[in-house]
Design goal:
Layout: H1 2-19, H2 25-32, H3 37-49, H4 54-63, H5 67-81, E1 93-95, E2 99-106, E3 110-119, E4 127-132, E5 136-140, E6 151-159, E7 165-167, E8 170-175, E9 182-192
Parallel strand pairs: 2-9
Antiparallel strand pairs: 1-3, 3-6, 4-8, 5-6, 7-9, 8-9
Length: 203
């Protein structure tokens, strides 16, 4: 039902834009700003259905990048054209820290943090999969090849419920690094029991 509502909303926006002759990007911008990312993607899909060119969309997006990012985009395109991209191309990386020190926290807290990783090699860095040894959640990781010299974040969430004491869960990152194709990083926290608030009687 919600998806259908969103499609209707996009259609209404298009119709309103058409009736007000919003032909230029400047005229369209106020309407775009009111849409969510999901609705904008639906709008793109609709415009492709109407005959717009995805090649033109890519070209226009490319022109919005500054020069160094354009070069990275070209590297990405070349990578996509390579057969078996990443299968034999190994690189090296450097983590800013291989253990995130989260300090002393109360049980029940949910901690958010990030591993920062830099591609120090000469080939694109690709993460295929991340597995965790506990109730850790990877909220965000790069789904694209990380070009040489680039630094990206791996965003993680750590749920401390039921983990009183010293907790050092691990995360195995399967990638295309030399020599083993994986990295192991850790979270570290001292989880203390939650202090129960006293009731009104002072107990």
């Amino acid at each position: 039902m919600m998806a259908r509502y969103n499609i209707y909303l996009v259609a209404i926006c298009l119709l309103f834009a058409a009736t007000t002759q919003a032909q230029s990007l400047g005229e369209m911008r106020p309407y775009l700003d009111t849409l969510s990312t999901e609705q904008k993607l639906q709008l793109l899909e609709y415009m492709r259905y109407q005959g717009s060119s995805i090649d033109r969309e890519v070209a226009q997006s490319y022109l919005q990048l500054d020069k160094d990012k354009q070069e990275r985009a070209l590297q990405y395109v070349r990578l996509q054209l390579m057969k078996k991209a990443g299968a034999n191309d190994r690189t090296t990386v450097r983590f800013k820290q291989d253990t995130l020190q989260m300090g002393r926290v109360e049980e029940g807290e949910i901690i958010l943090d990030s591993f920062m990783v830099t591609n120090t090699g000469s080939k694109p860095y690709m993460i295929r999969e991340i597995k965790t040894t506990c109730d850790c959640t990877v909220l965000r990781r790069p789904m694209f090849p990380v070009m040489p010299g680039e630094t990206v974040a791996i965003r993680v969430e750590f749920d401390t419920r039921g983990k009183v004491g010293l907790s050092t869960p691990g995360m195995v990152i399967y990638d295309n690094t030399k020599p083993n194709g994986r990295q192991i990083v850790y979270l570290s926290a001292e989880v203390i029991p939650r202090i129960k608030p006293k009731d009104s009687s002072g107990n």
